[in-house]
Amino acid sequence: MSVFSSATSIFAAAASDESFQPSDWLFENVWIVPAIMLASFVYILLFGKTFPGKDRVHFVGLTAISAALAISLLTAFTWITQYEGEQGDHSAQTSAFVDPSIVTAVDADEEGDKAKDSSRGCLAESNVVGDLRASDDEYALGSLLLNDIGSAELAVDAGEDGKGAGHIKAKPVVRCLEWFSTGSFGGESATGDTLKFHIGTIADGQSIMMLVVVTFISFLVHLYSTEYVKGDRRYVHYYAFLSLFTASMLFMVLSSSTLQLIVGWELVGVCSFGLIGHWWEEKPNSDAALKAFLTNRVGDIGLLVGMIVLFFGAGQTFDIQTINYLAVHGGLSQTTMTVAALCLMTAVMSKSGQFILHTWLPDAMAGPTPVSALIHAATMVVAGVYMIGRLYPVFWFGMSIEGSPINALAFVGALTVVGGGALAFVQNDVKKVLAYSTVSQLGYMVLALGVGAYTAGMFHLFTHAFFKACLFLGAGALSHACHHSFDMKAEMGGLRKRMPVTFATFMIGTLALVGVFPFAGFWSKDEILVGTGGFPSTNANGNYTLLLIMGLIGAAMTAGYMTRVIWLVFFGEYRGHVDPHDPPPVMKYPLIILAGLSVVTGFLNFPADWFGGLGSRFGLKFEQWVEPPRGDTFPVITHGDSNFLLAVIASAVGVASAALVWTYYQKLYAKDPSATEVTEGLRSKNKLAAGGYALLENKYYLDDLYQGGIADPMKGPIARAAYWLNQNVIDEVVNTAGRTSAMLGRFVYRYIDQGAIDGSVNLSGTSASESGGLLRKVQTGRVRNYASLMFGAAALLAAVFILAI
Amino acid sequence: MYLTQYLLLAAVLFCIGVYGVLTRRNGVMVLMSIELILNAVNINMVAFGVFNHVDGQAQVGGAVFALFIIAVAAAEVGVGLAIVLLIYRNRQSIDVSEASLMKG
């Protein structure tokens, strides 16, 4: 290592968190979890139909997911135990030393020596590391000045950020195998390097958190589906897809290279397609599946381009930790990271339902409700958010998140929060409301990551998974009871008394979603609002005031539309015509479990300065467990200070909005108990209101834009032009080629085959026969003739000899 | 004595043999003519053997060759006469011009 790079590494170490390397058999073999689900998928696929009584095929899926859940929980438990053990030692150690700066210096030296740490990714262990480090040094040399200034600033920031101090962080456990390499025959590639392709797993706080979320929700959905999808015509198919989805999602979550991530990403897309179109016999369902798939293709192009840019930018590597390391240490240029981040953002927009590519998500509700809960609310749609977190340094530097008032990522998130929330007001289908709510909440997550509040984003992902799954499964229970309908206005109302358990759990889910103290959503949403740094004295990364305001508007909207749902479904008069009641136990218990988690999960990350001494001792645990050590493969982000006033304001706008909506429906109820909306309201009096309503009802005309602007021209003129081209140009060429070859064939047959080849063969036959006919006359059978011929010939030979010699 | 005289004798004998082979119909006579041809050759062999001196010594090679030819000729006549006998048994004739079964 050159002097320059060691100098920069000391700077980086000064700014970075102290860290330790966790190690456990489980972390290195975490691939077992997706492998179990894959095995379950293969088993169901091959033997599902012949399984003893195919209606019991869910036993296979349930067994597999239970095993996967057990391993995931054990992994998370081990991770937390190791962290807490290390943290205890660390606190004891720091208090023993008089001057903490000496400890830091020692650690920094170790940091330098441990450059080939496994947490840095696959390349750290391989032979390429020399080359990579060399090029890294060159980068460091090139941008020394810049690095110096940057690191100095970072060091100051880290000094100011007192909350992170005294907490050690766990490094990721990366394990990978070489899959194949180029130039294995000793040849050299264009750049003279041998490229190695790795396949592996990353076990860190983020992936283990997702492991728990995915297996947990998947387990409950497996359980819930045994009743909900009972007797379905494609029961086996359903469970096979659930297993495949879980396997692919876990594969994506654990992937250590961007190549693997793309594969996992596409696989979950396929499962989503298959499950949205589960009842494909009905046209809208198969259309929705196609729409989801095609919209996602738009983002997938962004994903591919972004990953390719990163591949070449990082010196031809797919390894995520190496890319992150280079991004943090100035090995990737600002332009590279900006381009890559923007391209990857497109992928996030499609997969995580961000404005303007969110249109597929509400339509995806055509799938079975447990699938909506698992895939289109809790897990798959957060793949984009997860991907941002995985490549966070690229986004952090690419979007210049630190110290800025606005950036593309955060703005798209905020726009989604508000836009999605507004659309939720005009839906009559309870699942559609929840779908737009999901869009809006995903917006919060992207907003959080966009303003640099990494932990807040991940924490919202975590809590949202539980309460949104709770709400979706609750909606499934409603539909199960109300004649398979999701129409709040036509089929529901007054269900509070008829379905008490569903009401209670749905209510808890709603309170968590709205962000009422002390439910889960309160904590995560509050942290996101703090993270914007728009509120005075929150000391976050930037000063995103506009985004804070949009976040607050989103909070008000959430409270409003959820109050509307609660009133329409559970209060007022029952408008349906069946007798609804609570679902059977297998559907009820998942609801209760999820409702319970919606209450408690928020406490995993309550602010450090709340509840007196409890906060410093038990607060911010999620942050400590999940956030990677800053400064190595993770940017040096600043954590905002929680603000009591902001929490009060956020709650107040929510309550005000809810109260407003509640009053509206109460007044309506007082007038006419069966009414669901005002007939002579603001819309008929005010043109602007009518226009706004029409805009929302038509979903901002985005669907019409895509249909009219892209789909229809494709189907109409472009398709016809392509058909004409096909018929008249391409087919003509093909036909001409066909005719020409037929003619040529006939010519060849007639003249070459029949004439020359057959002729020569026949000629040799006839000539042999003719010459035989001639020669047979010589063979008379008389000895005398032979003798005379022999003597004659001998005499001739003798004459020749005599004359010639 | 000259070698030429022997060679002329042998040539005459050979020609008589050839004439016999070509003109005689009787199978036995043909065989006898063949004997004449063979003996013409024998005369040649012996004559060359006698007249071929190496280091002033006559060589026995020609005489030995003649002995071999006599032995082979005896065997040949044995086979030939057996064939003639069989032809006779089958056809009551030993006219070789009639025995043309191998005609192509």
Number of domains of chain B: 1
Structural domain count of chain A? 4
Q: How much β-strand is present in the residues of chain A? A: under 5%
- C-alpha termini separation of chain A: 95 Å
What CATH calls the topology of chain B is Helix Hairpins
User: How would you sum up the major sheet of chain B?
Assistant: 2 strands, antiparallel
- Give the structural class of chain A: mainly alpha
How many beta-strand segments of chain B?
Answer: 2
The CATH first-level class of chain B comes to Mainly Alpha
Work out the radius of gyration of chain B: 17 Å
Please give the share of residues in helix of chain B. over 70%
Order of neighbouring strands in the sheet with most strands of chain B: 1-2
Could you give the topology of this structure?
The complex is a heterodimer of chains A (805) and B (104).
Chain A: H1 3-15, E1 19-20, H2 25-28, H3 32-47, H4 58-96, H5 100-113, H6 128-142, H7 144-160, E2 169-170, E3 173-181, E4 196-203, H8 205-228, H9 235-254, H10 258-276, H11 283-313, H12 320-328, H13 334-351, H14 360-363, H15 369-378, H16 383-390, H17 392-398, H18 408-424, H19 430-450, H20 454-481, H21 488-491, H22 495-498, H23 500-514, H24 520-531, H25 545-570, H26 585-600, H27 613-618, H28 621-626, H29 644-671, H30 682-685, H31 687-697, H32 702-775, H33 783-804
Parallel strand pairs in A: 1-2
Antiparallel strand pairs in A: 3-4
Helix pairs in contact in A: 1-5, 1-7, 3-4, 3-9, 4-8, 4-9, 8-9, 8-15, 8-20, 8-26, 9-10, 10-11, 11-13, 12-17, 13-16, 13-17, 15-20, 16-17, 18-19, 18-25, 19-20, 19-24, 19-25, 20-23, 20-24, 20-26, 23-25, 23-26, 24-25, 24-29, 25-29
Chain B: H1 3-23, H2 27-51, E1 53-54, E2 57-58, H3 61-91
Antiparallel strand pairs in B: 1-2
